[in-house]
Automatic annotation (TrEMBL):
GO terms for cellular component: cytoplasm; nucleus. GO terms for molecular function: protein-L-histidine N-tele-methyltransferase activity. Residues 1-43 are annotated as: Disordered. GO terms for biological process: methylation. The lineage of its organism: Eukaryota, Sar, Rhizaria, Retaria, Foraminifera. This is protein-histidine N-methyltransferase. InterPro entries: Methyltransf_16, SAM-dependent_MTases_sf.
């Protein structure tokens, strides 16, 4: 039988050295995690403050992006993401060379992107196309009834994508609205679409870039970060807004509602909220739910959440099933909202993904939902 213990003094020293190195590595890793969270929060706040002082507008963003696309088209190479037989979307490809060429507002972001997919509180993976966002796009394009029903009761139609990253679900909804107007020339849809992400750079270099790559004009003029505090112009009937910030910042909700209601007497909220890969952490369930309820119209509003059934790994533990359990057992929310899984995606190659429908329990949508011929998953 093989003996696992060292026999010689040299082997003992070698074994002891390995154990000491491992202990040091674990301590260093724990220290790095704590420092990373502290450093990430401080640096992110500083980045937002610095960017606010520049007072850039979405008009400047569009002009800069269009100029870059003309001068350096290789920096805007894209992958084709198939949504359905009729629809494929372009998503900007951010490889190492492209990342090195971009001048990010956050000077540390290029280093983070080369090191990790997610750095909690600093960067939440917005520059990667995640499979759940594609699943949500596919569901939206195959279930236009959500948009059709909202159009019958909501004018203008207010849409938001929370934690948008590349913004493909919101872009899918815009394509769907364009399609409806194209089929029926008598339909003229007024809408507001808000893209929200933690990072200004994600909004600028992914969300906006993908709008332009998919031939969607960006009308209007609005604030691109929650810290500017100015009022957008609402001269156009169609508006696209970009709002950056952390979900636990109360001013984020105010900024997202302000773009819908520039006048003091107006109190508009969102009719459709879409979001994907945003409930992977148990720690975020509380602030995520509160933000959704603060933004969602209480009469006809509906939120579609696409995520994996379960997430595994350090600092994760979330997922659709854990989130449903959270809603059911939290007394602050279980009397306010209803939620159900409307579809499940199992491609036998990765974790099962599910789409969750969320709405106010006593709303008109709750009654409307009972009449909508859409299957639910058990």
């Amino acid at each position: 039988m093989q003996n696992d213990f060292p026999h010689t003094n040299e082997e003992k020293k070698e074994k002891s050295s390995e154990q000491l190195s491992l202990t040091k590595a674990k301590k260093l890793d724990r220290g790095n995690q704590l420092e990373r969270k502290k450093f990430g929060k401080q640096e992110h706040e500083q980045t937002l403050n610095n960017f606010a002082k520049k007072k850039k507008s979405i008009t400047n963003w569009v002009k800069e992006a269009e100029k870059e696309m003309q001068l350096s088209p290789k920096l805007f190479e894209s992958q084709l993401v198939k949504i359905s037989k009729e629809l494929s979307l372009k998503a900007r490809t951010l490889n190492k060379k492209t990342i090195e060429s971009i001048r990010f507002e956050d000077p540390k972001l290029s280093q983070i992107l080369n090191a990790t997919d997610i750095w909690q509180g600093r960067y939440e993976g917005g520059m990667k196309v995640w499979e759940c966002s594609v699943d949500l796009c596919t569901y939206l394009i195959s279930h236009p009834i959500f948009v059709e029903k909202q159009l019958s009761v909501s004018k203008p139609l207010n849409i938001a994508e929370i934690g948008c990253g590349h913004g493909l679900p919101a872009i899918t909804l815009l394509k769907l609205l364009q399609q409806m107007e194209g089929i029926d020339k008598t339909i003229s849809v007024n809408w507001n679409v808000t893209f929200q992400d933690l990072n200004v750079d994600v909004l600028k270099h992914c969300s906006l870039a993908n709008l332009l790559l998919n031939d969607i004009q960006v009308p209007g003029h609005c604030d691109d970060t929650l810290t500017e505090g100015g009022k957008p112009s609402h001269k156009d009937a169609k508006q696209i807004h970009f709002v950056s910030g952390n979900w636990n910042d109360a001013s984020l909700k105010d900024a997202m509602l302000q773009v819908l209601s520039p006048s003091k007497g107006d109190k508009h909220k969102y009719d459709i909220i879409v979001t994907s890969e945003t409930i992977y952490s148990l720690d975020n369930f509380d602030i995520f739910t509160q933000l959704i309820l603060d933004l969602l119209d209480q009469t006809y509003g509906v939120c579609l959440v696409c995520a994996k059934a379960y997430y595994f790994g350090d600092d994760l533990g979330g997922g659709v099933q854990e989130y449903l359990s959270f809603l059911l057992n939290d007394d602050r929310f279980n009397k306010l909202v209803d939620a159900c899984v409307v579809t499940r995606v199992d491609d036998q190659m990765s974790n099962i993904r599910e789409i969750l429908l969320l709405y106010y329990r006593n709303s008109q949508f709750a009654e409307l939902w009972k009449k909508m011929d859409i299957e639910q998953e058990d």
